[in-house]
Amino acid sequence: MSDAPVLPPAPPAPNPKPVIPPKPAAGNAVSQERRQFIFTWLGLAWTAFALATGTALSTVLRFMFPNVLFEPKTSFKAGRPDDYEIGKVDERWKEKYGVWIVRTLEGIYALSVVCTHLGCTPNWLEGEQKFKCPCHGSGFYKTGINFEGPAPRPLERLRISLADDGQVLVDKSKKFQQEKGEWNDPESFLTP
Amino acid sequence: MPSFSFKDFRLKTQVGKSIFRHGYSDDERDRALTVLTNVFFHLHPVKVRKSGARFGFTWCAGGLSFFVFLTLVVSGILLMFYYRPTVEYAYNDIIAMREHVPFGIMRELHRWGAHAMIITVWLHMFRVFMTGSYKPPREFNWVIGVILLVLTMLLSFTGYLLPWDQLAIWAITVGSNMARATPFLGHEGPGAALLKLGDIQLIHSGSDVRFALLGGNFVGAAALLRFYILHCVAIPVVVVILMAVHFWRIRKDGGISAPL
After folding, report:
1. Is the complex ipTM more than 0.90?
2. Superfamily (CATH H level) for B58-252
3. Residue among B173, B207, B217 minimizing CB distance to A120
4. Does B71 contact chain A (CB < 8 Å)?
5. What is the distance between the alpha carbons of residues A171 and B219, in angstroms, rounded to a whole number?
6. What is the pTM of this model?
7. How many whole angstroms separate alpha carbon A192 and alpha carbon A190?
8. By the 8 A CB rule, do B159 and B231 touch?
9. Is some CB atom of chain A closer than 8 A to the CB atom of B212?
10. CB-based contacts of A98: which residues, under 8 Å, 6+ apart?
């Protein structure tokens, strides 16, 4: 660093522009102009108009987002674990809550019925042991893993636990995605 | 029996003179005034080039689009007398339009008209492009036309849900899921994660453009009502205003363009 070469002084510009001394009156005129721009009735009127218009538009925007939604609850009690047969895909909650409950030898998991392609509802085909989406043909194994069609990722699993009264509790507000490694989460799986 | 003379009614009675603000001869001046003094005609160019009126040049595509739009307005208003946009009634009302309502063809007329308008509007755009009619001074009108094309497709999209059958629900589910990927305004879209106040995410699944479109988290009763209002009121009002500008600009930009 200390060995940095000392640069020679820059040569003077070929045609240096003559320096014009600032006129003393110019500064005053500008600030007066600016003051006039800010404090005018017209400026005030435009500001008020802009504020009123902005308020009205944001009111309309907010109006489109209701405070209360009349949609099914996001969590529900799904009966006792023994209600579910081992090796079966249970469709009793599909219509009402949009959930399949699957029981395997290892335990119980809840699958969201929303296709990961564009959001249609696949059908469980018992004979072929797969979920098949009628819209664009995506197919998923019983585990929820995608294996055919355009779906880019597996079906989502939902939080599942045992309530105090021994019933299975499904909470749709918490999702577990296989491709993010979330299926190892103990909340995504119920071992009765 | 005294014979009725339209010419006398036009030129001599107070009623005739008050309705029509021009003379009754077929000279250039009166023919121009006929167009100029009429609130509907005045949007139209006073004079049309002979070449511009040739079918082979325009294919009448713009005029056909407007004509089909008018039939859609008339048939659509008639359908509104029988259709209720609620989950309980919507599907049955659509069936009733075919089975119980006089002239059951009215709903098919509206549906086929919608298909026809998409075709004629695209043909119109193709014609304007191929004849170079988008060039100055008509660039502004080209832009208005592109907006009208998008609004025409939005009218089709919103009308698609109203029969409330399986096709409608899943088509709109798929279509509105694409809105998740809207830049900045869709919660899965690029840039949406950047919009936050501190730790609070401003754009999430309950506050994005898809939610505003559906009025909920999925295609349900609120979505049906919203699509109905967009289809029957909101978009048609904008389309009519922009059509008026579109037609008026044809006149102001020098009428239908001449062949190259």
Report:
1. no
2. Cytochrome Bc1 Complex; Chain C (1.20.810.10)
3. B173
4. no
5. 21
6. 0.79
7. 6
8. yes
9. yes
10. A72, A112, A113, A114, A121, A172
